[in-house]
Amino acid sequence: MMRLVVALLVLALGVLVVVSMEAPEWILAAAGSDWFPAELGLGAERVDGLFDHTNLFAAGLLGLTFVGLAWAVWRGAGRRAGEGSERSGSRRLEVLWTVVPAGIVVHLTLAQIQARDAIAADARGGEGAGAPLAIEVEGVQFDWRFTYAGADGAFGTLDDVTSVVDMPVPVGRPVELRMRSVDVIHSFFVPELRMKRDVVPGTVTPLAFTIDAQDHAAAGSPETLELRCAELCGWGHYAMVGRLLPMEQHAFDDWQARAGAAGFEAEAMADDVEDEG
Amino acid sequence: MIGALRAAFDRETTVEELHPHEPRTWVGRYVFSTDHKVIGIQFFVLGLVMLLMGGLMALLMRFQLAWPFAKVPIVGEWLFPETGGAMTPEGYTALLTLHGTIMTFFVVIPLLTGAFGNYLIPLMIGAPDMAFPRMNALAFWLMIPGVGCLAMSALSPGGGAGAGWTSYAPLSTVGEYSPGSLSGQTWWLLALTFAGFASILGGLNYVVTVVKMRAPGLTAMRLPLTVWGLVIAALLQLLALPVLTSGTVLMFVDRGFDAALLSPGNAADGEGGQPLLWQHLFWFYSHPAVYVMILPAMGIVSDVLSVHSRKPVFGYRPMVIAMASIAGLGFIVWGHHMFTSGMDPRLEMAFLVSTMLIAVPSGVKTFNWLGTLWGARVRLTTANLFAIGFVAQFVVGGLSGLWMAATPVDRYMHDTYAVVAHFHYIVFGASLFALFAGLYHWWPKMTGRRMHEGIGRVHFLGTFLGTNAVFLMMHQLGFRGMIRRTADPTIQDGVAQLQGLNVFITWSAVVLVSVQVLFVANLVYGLFLARRGEDNPWDAASLEWTAPSPPPAGNFRARIQVARGPYDYRVRPAGELDHVPQAAPAEQT
Fold first, then answer.
1. Most trustworthy range by pLDDT among A31-45, B43-57, B270-284, B542-556
2. What pTM was estimated for this model as a whole?
3. Residue B575 region, left (φ>0) first, then alpha (ψ -120 to 50), else beta?
4. 3-state secondary structure of A273
5. Distance CA B20, CA B490 (A)
6. What is the DSSP string of B233-298?
7. Nearest CA in chain A to B97
8. Within a 10 A sphere around the Cβ of B542, how many other Cβ atoms?
C-alpha cells in the first residue's frame, strides 16, 4: 500500500513539474492568467525561446529520473530477503551519466552564449536601427525619475525634459538608458522586455532595449507597461512602481515638446521668484 | 607536499591515545559538556527551536502575501500595535530578513554541520571524541550570543534589520536609508559574526578530527559519505568564511565610522567605495554556504538510502569525486548571483560556464542514488521516505537552477519568485528532508529508542505534499514577474490576477507547518514513550552502530579495527545476516 502511494506521489510530482515546464499555460489558465507577460522587447522571444529550449532537456531528464525513482521504489519495496542485487557500481554507467549530461551542458551553454549575444544585438534595435534615444534614469527611494535630452538631443541644456514615474518611449526605436541611483541599489525591471538591471549608487549602469512595433501592435498596443524595482531597496520597495508608456514617435515628439515647454516655464518662474527674493 | 599530506591523512590514531572525559556534575555533563554527543544534541535543540521560529515567521509573511495589510490573526495586535494589528511594510522587510538569516545561519547550517557533524563524525570514524573538545563546546556556546544579537536586532528601536539576509550595501550601511538600519543592522552583523566564528571553529575541528583520529584501517575511501559531505563542507567553511568575515568588518567600519567603504558616500568627491564589493565578498562565502547546506545532506541521504534499501551505495568513488567537484566549482560560481548587478559582462561569461558545469556532478549524484535504489530491497521506513523525497525534490530544485545559470533567462527570473521557488526546493525540499531522514535514522543511536513509524509516515506524507503545494506554484508566480521581498504582490498588474495562487500557497503553508505537530509528537514519543533496548535497530553496517545506543562517554567499548567500507550489504536468505559490520574482522568475510 505505502509503496504504491509513494510511487504515485513521486510520479504525480514529476508529471506536475513537467507540465508546468512544458505546458505552463494550462496551469496558469486554471489559475486565471496567461503565461509569461507579452513579449514586447526585441529579443524577448529569444529569452523565452532559450527558456523553452532549456526546459526541453530539463523536462526530459526530470521525467527520466522520476519514472526511474518511482519504479525503483515500487519494485524495491516488494522485494523480500534473498532477492535483489548487491551491485555497488558500474564504470560503464558512470561514464554514461557523466558524458551525456556533460554533452547537454555543453550544448546548453553554447546556446546560452549565442542567445546572449543575439539578445544584446536585438536590444540595440538590430541591423539598420535608427539613432538610439538616450534617457537618464534615476532611482530614488521609492520613485523613478527620468530625464530626456529634449529636441536638441543634448543633456544639460534648457530644453531637457524631466518626468517622474512616467517614462514615455517611442515604439520601434532603440532606447539607451543610463541609470544612476541617489541612495541605495534599485533594479530596473519591465517583465514585458524580459530585462532587468540594477541601478547602483556611485556608478552608471547602461541598459538598452527596443520595443518591437509589430509585437506591440499584436498585443493590442498596450499604453502602459509596469516598471518594477526588483532589488530590495527599503520598506517602500514593494510600492516602487513606474510606468513605461510606449507611444508612436510623433506622439513622443509632441509629449517631449509640450513637457519641455512646461518645464521651461516652470523653471523661468522659479528663476523670477529667486530674482525677486 | 602531497606525500606529506597523504602521510598525515593515513596516519592511524589508536583509541588508547585519547582519554574519555567524564565530568562529575550534572551541569558539567549535560550543559557545559565537552562530549561531542552532548554538543551535537545541543545543536539539535537550538536548530529545531530556531526552525520553529523561522517557520512561524514564514507563516506571518505568507499571511501578508495572501491578504496584504489585513489584520494579522492572533499576534497582530501584539506585533503591530500602531496599525491596530495590520502588518507594516517595514515589519515585513524585517521579517524577511530575520527569516532568511535564521534559516540559513541558525537552522540549516548548524543543524547539518553542528548537530550531525558533532554527533556523527567521531562515532562514524571510530574515535572517542573530537580532536578539540573544548573548542567544540566553544563553537556551540558562540551560537547563543549569536541568537541573542539576532533577538536584539529584531527588538531594536526603528525595527529589525531590514536589508534582507544578503544585506546589500548601502541599504545596510547608511542609517537613513532603512529604519531598521539604525542599530538593528549592527546587531544583525554581530549575530552573523558569532555564527561565523562558530562555523570556523567547528570546521577546523571536523577536518582535524577526520584527518587525525580515524580508527586503524579506516582509509579515506572507507569513510561513510556522510563524513565526506561533512568534511568537504567544513573545508568550504574554513576557506570561504574568512572572506565574509572581512566583509562584515568593512560593514562595521562603514556603520560605525561612516567610512563609505561599501557605498559611494559623498559621490561628489569621487572617493567613495563600491557597493558591488560587498556583493562579491558576500557571495564568495554565501555561494559555498549553499553547498555547506547541501553536501552533508547528500551524504546523509546516501547513507540512509543504502541502509534502508539494504544495498551498497552505488558508485561510492564517483559520489566522493562529485561532492569534491561540486565544492571546488562552488568557489568560482558566486557571480551568478550578480548577473543583473552591472558587473563586467566579460565576467558574466565565466560565471555562466562554471555554473552550468555544476550540473554534471549534481547529475552524477542523482543517478547514483537511483542506482542505489535500483534492484534494492527498499524498506519504506520514515527515514527512507524522507531520503526518497530528498532525491525527487533535489532534482526539481537542481534543474530549475539551469534557468538561473542562463544569463538571458536569469535577467528575467532574478529577484522574482522563480528564484524563491528554486532555492526553497533545495534548502527545504532537499536539506530539511535530509535533516528529517537523518533524525529518524539516527534517533535510535542518540536515545536508544525508535520514533513511531506510523506517525513518521504520516509526517512524511504531509510534509511532502505540503512542501510541493507551497513551493511548486511559486515558479509560476515568478514567471509572471512577481518580485521577491515584496510586501504586497497585488500592486503588480500581471501578478494581481494570480492572487488566488498566493492564497493557495498560504493555506498550504499553514498545512505544512501544522503537520510538523506530528513531528513534535514523535519527538516526545521517541524521548519518553518508546521502548528502549536495541543497539542497531536498522541492521546498519557503519561504525557508529558498533557502539552501544546511546553511546557512553568515549563511545566504543572495544578497540575498533576497520577492514572494509561502510556499505557491505548483501543478498542473503531470510534469517541470515545480510550485512557485514564495518568493524568486523577481515577473516569473517
1. B43-57
2. 0.94
3. left
4. helix
5. 61
6. HHHHHHHHHHHHHHHHHHHHHHHHH---SSS--SGGGS----HHHHHHHHHHHHHHHHHHTTHHHH
7. A232
8. 28
Q: Does B411 touch chain A (CB under 8 A)?
A: yes
> Are A76 and B378 within 8 A, CB to CB?
yes
Give the model's pLDDT for residue B18.
47
List chain A residues with CB under 8 Å of B494. 33, 37, 191, 226
Question: What is the number of CB-based contacts under 8 A between chain A and chain B?
Answer: 320
Q: What are the sequence ranges of the domains in chain B?
A: 31-263+273-588
**pLDDT tens digits for A108-137?**
999 999 999 999 999 998 887 788 999 999
- Cell reading at B44: 539539535
- Which domains are seen in chain A, by residue range? 2-76+92-123 (no CATH), 133-276 (2.60.40.420)
**CA–CA separation, A260 and A160 (whole Å):** 6
A63 DSSP 8-state letter: H
**Residue B353 cell numbers, joined:** 560556464
Cell of residue A110, nine digits: 553554447
Chain A positions touching B313 (Cβ under 8 A) are 88
Burial of B131 (0-12, 13-18, 19+ CB in 10 A): buried
- C-alpha to C-alpha distance for A5 and B339, rounded to whole angstroms: 42
Residues of A in contact with B399 (CB under 8 A): 58, 61-62
> Nearest Cα to B112, choosing from B282, B237, B240, B239?
B237
> Domain spanning B31-263+273-588: which CATH class is it, in words?
mainly alpha
Average pLDDT over every residue of B480-509 = 93
Q: Chain A contact for B474, CB < 8 A?
A: no
* Whole-number Å distance between alpha carbons of B261 and A127: 43
What residues of B are in contact with residue A189 (Cβ under 8 Å)?
415, 481, 483
ipTM > 0.90, yes or no: yes
Mutate to test the interface with A, among B356, B365, B502 (most CBs of A within 10 A): B356
Spatial neighbors of A98 by CB under 8 A, at least 6 apart, are B318, B360, B363, B364
Cross-chain CB nearest to A202 (options B274, B310, B475): B274
Q: Which of B511, B404, B517 is nearest to B468 (CA)?
A: B511
Distance CA B542, CA B307 (A): 9
Contact A82 B572 (CB under 8 A): yes
- B93/A65 Cβ within 8 A: no
Which B residues 453-472 touch A at CB under 8 Å? 457, 461, 464-465, 468, 472
